[in-house]
Amino acid sequence: xxxxxxxxxxxxxSLLLAAPAAARASEASAARxxxxxxxxxxxxxxxxxxxxxxxxxxxxxxxxxSGARTDTRFLSSIRAxxxxxxxxxxxxxxxxxxxxxxxxxxxxxxxxxxxxxERLRAAGVLPSTYPEWAAVGAVLGLMQLSLAGxxxxxxxxxxxxxxxxxxLQEFRDLAAExxxxxxxAYGRAREELGSYASRGQQFLGELHYFAAVxxxxxxxxxxxxxxxxxxxxxxxxxxxEAREADRRMREANVFKEVWEDSSRTITILQQxxxxxxx
Length: 278
Fold this sequence. Notes:
Blueprint: H1 3-10, H2 12-22, H3 25-31, H4 36-65, H5 72-93, H6 103-123, H7 130-147, H8 165-192, H9 200-223, H10 228-251, H11 259-277
């Protein structure tokens, strides 16, 4: 997202100032437990780090599913890093009851994030995640500065702007196309129901559901404001359900006549997901 490069640039000065002090962060934090103020700062930064890493993982996963040139090994590395940020956040939440020295874990996360980002850039894959890696590095730098005794201002929560202009029109066009594709699939399935006596009724119900959801998405898109923070999770959920339904329908060899429309529905939802995450 566009805010993440800004966050990285805003943190450059802090990172440069942090370099000499960060080398002593491990010794300082081990000798002196986090006081209340520094603990809350670290906890807030850990939340930012975790949320950025989880968003990075989701974006990378979507890119892989949409056929971007990549390798599952990269996705595995990103997933492992995101899991580590989640574990670190959980550990900091429990810090008052189970104290530990956070500096080595921050240093390890920093080393891993740099290594994964360098691998991605060297291979020229998943370029859409590069700004998020910059944001990860910025937050880790602020953690190092805080642990070294510096004063850190926690970045404010980012408010995702509503879609406007060309992206909004594209989202609306896709919503209309999605409604048409889902309606065609449902209508064709009704016509062919007699050929699939065993499980046809079950899958017809699912196709009817997707037709209804598609109408709702188009109505939401045409109504006015399209806020990615609220619409994004809806599109994500529908995409996951569409993929699962398409897989099961093919495995059951049911409604072969609508498989093309089913695939098109998934493609449209992937494009809509990209709009509400870009």
